[in-house]
Amino acid sequence: MDRRIDVSLEDKKQSKVSSAGLSIVSYCLASIAMTVINISALKGLNVINFRDFNWTDTKAWFPVSFLLAVVIYTGSKSLQYLQIPVYTIFKNLTIILIAYGETIWFGGSISRLAFLSFLLMVLSSLVAASEDILNAFSSLEPSGSATGYCWMFTNCISSAAYLLVMRKRIKVTAFKDWDSMAYNNALSVPLLVVASLIREDWSAASLDRNFPESNRYLLLSTIAFSGAAAVGISYTTAWCVRTTSSTTYSMVGALNKLPVAASGLIFFNDPATPTSISAIAIGFVAGIMQLCLSLQTATKMSIEEIQENVENLNFSEAGPSNAATQSRAEKKARQALQGLGLKKVPGVTRVVLRRPRNVMLVATNPEVQTAPGSGIHIVFGEFKVEDPSQLQAASQLAGQEGQDKSESKKPEDIMTEMNTQAANISEGKGKDVEEDGPVDETGVDAKDIELVMAQVGCPRSKAVKVLKENNGDLINAIMAASD
């Protein structure tokens, strides 16, 4: 008789476990399917736009969707055997795994502040769930516990891999946020359907147990609402991973539980115990640390983007079109800088950049901005080539003229006169100083030749020669002619 009771209890326990797994997978399937339907409808109404599905992008994005399906399925199986506090602890530990994965895959390093914020977040969840964890461990059976930890370990690995692979694939495919969301959800549905059909019980009795008639419509309505809300969650997930990092996204996911916990104490009369208050306080400290790190990362990424835009400018092309291109690039750079909290540095009248071969790039009356605490300065202005040897000669000439005149000319004024004389020579108004007679100027812009002659004071033949040797690059040609 006792044996029969034990078997009956075991059957009920297995039925409950299977029921839980089916309900979670069914909920995820319905929510994701609703997301796909919603974004397809929005595209049909021309509210949003994303790429049409094609085989090339599908193959490139399939690993991401596969890992998402693994994350959802292993998470549902973990919750069958483990209590929610234990599950939350392991999910927060995944943040550290993701951070080290980013250092290996994308380079960089983990600062002490970042590592400390990770530890504080894990400590916060440990403190908050300390009593529940003790009760959970005492109530777990060895067999169920081992199975649950296996599923949990798989979920942690797949969660880290999912976010890291997603960040990599977004760069490879150049997906926009709507593209990532559409492909992610559309490719995940068939994978979850296959896994659920293989592993779960889809009998009529199981469906009645998971969708009881008494609250069936309420449950389906909740799933539909969740699918609509999942559109925003999916979009912001891709947005966050693309613009920040997988680690930052994971930390935000852990931190968003803190306002919920605090609102429970304030609005729902949850007991304000020392344990709960300490957990929230520790979590908020970790959040402040992560916010500081995120701001530093955003500043660094924006500055790198600006530097890339500046490096892509083609200074060898003269004329109005090139001026317009530089103006557009400068406007884009300024727009990117507006949200970085930069401060203008007052009192800067001259900025000098020293280049090889004793050449200097000088900007007069530039606009200089700096990011507080970063040591980075950004200069907006027109840079001109300046040769120290010419300045020295101009100073000596000014000194000689000063012996006969009460007021000597400034070196800058003498430099202007020298440049004017060089320009006159290039236009044929002065003495012809060409050394080699007629010069083949095919493929070289006449304005570039005159500019090199004016800046360096070299013969026309040499200006043509250095421009051809440097493929029309004006800056390198001027530096070569200065030798």
Describe the protein in words:
- There is one protein chain.
- The protein is built from 18 helices and six strands.
- It is mainly alpha-helical.
- It folds into three domains: 14-305, no CATH class; 313-386, Ubiquitin Ligase Nedd4, Chain: W, CATH 2.20.70.30; 388-481, no CATH class.
- The strands form two sheets. Strands 1-4-5 form a three-stranded antiparallel β-sheet, with no helix packed on it. It has a three-stranded antiparallel β-sheet with strand order 2-3-6.
- Strand 4 (367-371) and strand 5 form a beta hairpin.
- The longest helix is centred in the N-terminal third of the chain and has 43 residues, at 2-44.
- The chain is elongated.
- 27% of the residues are buried.
- The model is unreliable at 1-19, 313-325 and 428-436 (pLDDT under 50).
Class derived from helix and strand content: mainly alpha
Q: Measured on Cα atoms, how large is the radius of gyration?
A: 34 Å
Largest sheet: number of strands, sense, barrel closure: 3 strands, antiparallel
**What is the helix content?**
over 70%
- Secondary structure tally, helices: 18
Shape: elongated
